[in-house]
Design a protein that fits this description.
Order of helices and strands: EHHHHHEHEHEHEHEHE
Strand order of the largest sheet: 3-2-1-4-5-6-7
CATH superfamily of the largest domain: HAD superfamily/HAD-like
Radius of gyration: 17 Å
CATH topology of the largest domain: Rossmann fold
Helix content: 40-55%
Number of strands: 7
Structural class: alpha/beta
Shape: globular
């Protein structure tokens, strides 16, 4: 039985998806490169940081605002990105190490389990189906379904409300600073999750989060870091 201080007084765990629940952050740089090349675009170096935490919808609008030569609608950009990413998500994006056992244990303990992601709904739903884990989650919401993406708390507050759990009794798992801020802004405890793509931001993640793990077995083994 998993008993650890991190989970004391916690009634729900809420996961970001990309880089936190699923090893998928590596997919997007290649899609960006292909998209830029296809439409002859040149993005500033700050572009990835500027987009961090935005919802799928907000990123599409950001592209339209940043590249006036694009003749797409926002929905057309989102559909094209989904088509470009879909096969990689459903066939090449595994669960993060140790997270399946952790989810099963949380379910066994009767804790509510949710997802609050910035990704698009189709990619989220199809990925969870492909990984055969969709039944474990009580609530799945995307930041496209609220007013503002991360670091605003909106999507985390929506998931907590639908789970029927007070924010203070929710534990969030996130892999990037803007996501960590979203959880903190919602009044929740946040555990930062190591991911190769966000490793250059590790210092900032540690500054913002309450806990830090390299893999989910750190929780069971009580080798997680209290920050």
């Amino acid at each position: 039985m998993l008993e650890t201080k991190m989970l004391k007084d916690i009634d729900a765990v809420i996961f970001d998806m990309d880089g936190t629940l699923v090893d998928s952050m590596w997919i997007w740089p290649s899609i960006d490169r292909d998209f830029y090349a296809k439409y002859g675009l040149t993005a500033p170096e700050s572009f990835p940081d500027d987009m961090e935490g935005m919802s799928f919808t907000e990123v599409a609008q950001f592209f339209l605002d940043s590249f006036p030569t694009l003749s797409h609608t926002r929905e057309e950009i989102m559909e094209e990105w989904t088509e470009m990413a879909h096969e990689r998500y459903i066939s090449q994006a595994p669960l993060k190490e140790g997270v399946y056992d952790f989810i099963v244990e949380m379910k066994r303990q009767g804790k509510k389990i949710g997802i609050a992601t910035s990704n698009g709904r189709k990619l989220v739903d199809d990925t969870l189906e492909a990984l055969k884990v969709v039944a474990y989650f009580d609530v799945v919401r995307t930041a496209c379904e609220v007013a503002k993406g991360k670091p605003a708390p909106d999507v985390y507050l929506l998931v907590a409300k639908e789970l029927g759990v007070e924010p203070a009794r929710c534990l969030v798992f996130e892999d990037v600073p803007m996501g960590i801020l979203a959880g903190k802004n919602a009044g929740m405890k946040v555990c930062a999750v190591d991911d190769e793509c966000s490793r250059p931001q590790e210092g900032r993640k540690r500054e913002l989060a309450d806990y830090y793990i390299y893999q989910y077995d750190d929780i069971r083994n009580e080798t997680y870091e209290v920050l």
